[in-house]
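Researcher: Batch entry, complex prediction.
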Amino acid sequence: MTETLSFPDPTQLAVPFFIAAILIEFLWIAMKKRGGRYETRDAVTSLVMGAGSVAEGILLGFIAWGFLMVLWDLTPLDLGTSVWALVACFVLDDLRYYWVHRFGHRIRWVWASHVNHHSSQHYNLTTALRQTWTGTFTFMMVVKAPLVLLGFHPALVLFAGGLNLIYQFWIHTEAIGKLPGWFEAVMNTPSHHRVHHGRNPRYLDCNYAGVFIVWDRMFGTFVPEQEDEKVDYGLVHNLGTFNPLRVAFHEWLGIWRDITQPGLTLRQRLAYAFAPPGYSHDGSRETSAQIKARHLARHPQDRGTPGFTDRPPGPAQGLRS
Amino acid sequence: MPLEFLLILVIGGISAIAVILHLTGRSHRAVLLPEDARAAWHRHFPDDMIVDVTVAHDGHAALVETEQGPGLLWSFGADTVGRHLRDFDLLDHPQGLRVLFHDFTAPQVTLHLSPDERRDWQARMTPR
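Model: Structure tokens for the complex:
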């Protein structure tokens, strides 16, 4: 059994590439006067969030590593480190990413960690680096457990996860339009991921893919970018601060305040932490499903079009803070 | 990658990008006209019925009267942020007014107002 195995951290090695690509994108936008927008404080906030995320990985990465190594000691399976093992691990890890990402939008506890990635009103390569500082506390490392139990070494799993994140860097751009049809059909692309970052009712809670958009097509969460509806980036309730600490922790604080308010039942307190974002016991907030329903009430002609094809939702479905 | 090298790369990279963006004019705050303010408010609160919009003389903030109550819209970098005026404190500021929202996601805004604007806005923002 492969006991001692180490791979380089691809996200750390990619830092020079990230910086160069951001400068190239910015120069391209400045010269062409199209393809996106940059704003100083927004970009700096995103970059500081990225640096903090790397620091969090260095400081707390041992927790996920320790958990996965315990599983590795338990499993009798070892698929080795061949190229085929890496390819299989990469594809399955992308399926893992799809579900973790979907949980990240549908479970407030996980959304609290992920929300910062959506908190910019801009969409450029710096937005890709606006990453979480609190991912460890979501305990989403448990979704990696099946991969390790299947015989993929934890080092291979983490390496595949790093490659996945690097792939997603380049799709955070408005400088690239739509790519050839076969590519858009299989791969996650700037067009698909722009939609994911939209706060338009049509674009809420869709396109969770990391590398392969086929997962969204398979699980019914795919919405294509519409020529006649420009993506409006950011949160439903946009932040009024560039302070990275507030960006990183605001939703966790929101959960704390909600679950500790007086007069709630235990079920309501749990719902504030684990129901979809936007849950409220008194109906004072809106879910993404309610936002979509409200949009359809104003624009009934949109019913049945992409992003509005579901049945009318119940009150607890699909929420956004 | 050695940690020291990573630190230098990250700090140097962030600094370089910040300087380039600032020197090429990417630090300018959005300047609002009344019609911009209306559209921006509807972007944040699509269901609100706007009654009146008053834009500050510097164009960086707007007081929005809606049927749902008063609201404040302000420049946030190149974009805008809006909040209903429901839970906040209003403080005097040498250049106008400072709004302290009881909101972790939008803690405060400094409004640059002329003396006349300041009197008018203060009266209209103070909860009755």
